[in-house]
Amino acid sequence: MRCATKVTVAAFGAVAAMAGLEHGIGEVLQGNVSSGGVFILSWPDSAFFRTLGGEPAMTVVPNLLITGILAIVAALAFFVWATMFVQRKHGGLALIALSIVLLLVGGGFGPPLLGVILGIAATRINAPLGWWRDRVSPGVRRLLGAAWPWSLGAGLVAWLLLFPGSTIASYCYGVDHPGLTATLISLAFGFLFLTIAAAIAHDSLQQPIVARAPSRRR
What we know:
By secondary structure, the protein is an all-alpha fold. The chain has helices at about 5-30, 65-85, 90-105, 110-120, 130-135, 140-175, 180-205; strands at about 40, 55-60. A two-stranded antiparallel sheet has the order 1-2. Helix 1 runs antiparallel to helix 7 (about 180-205).
């Protein structure tokens, strides 16, 4: 089993699940009212979430209370699967399916997008890595593999700076600049993709190379 890839999916998966959970809580607090359409705001009247535009989301359920409950359940299911069961057969596909469910029941747009990316990465947990060795030089793989723990830490910090860091800075200190938010988004996704690549490189270095038996000619 690919340890680095699994840890990466679990760590960022926990971030995605908590963000989806936050959306659901905001929808539940709005009460037993109509959603008013497919596109909604999870926290429309909250000054704390003003810098994030009230946390946009979508739902196929025409009731905000039920939407919020379903978002919370979907987020918790996503968390459990990403941290405990994603290494199973078809675990990555199941994570993608849960991400789609989270999208459709008010879990926001960022958490499901992050979930789909992680689900794709999770499909490599039990897959052969010969293709990686064939296309990436040993030096690059060693460099990426060594950078994996640092990239993972930096990526998690970037996501936490995006949320709740940016909302705390805006609400408590009046720091509200679109350029800052765009920079944090770029860093968060940049480190995410770098960490996934580094995790696969790390695991490819740990996997023993099985020598192929020479074919016999008659």
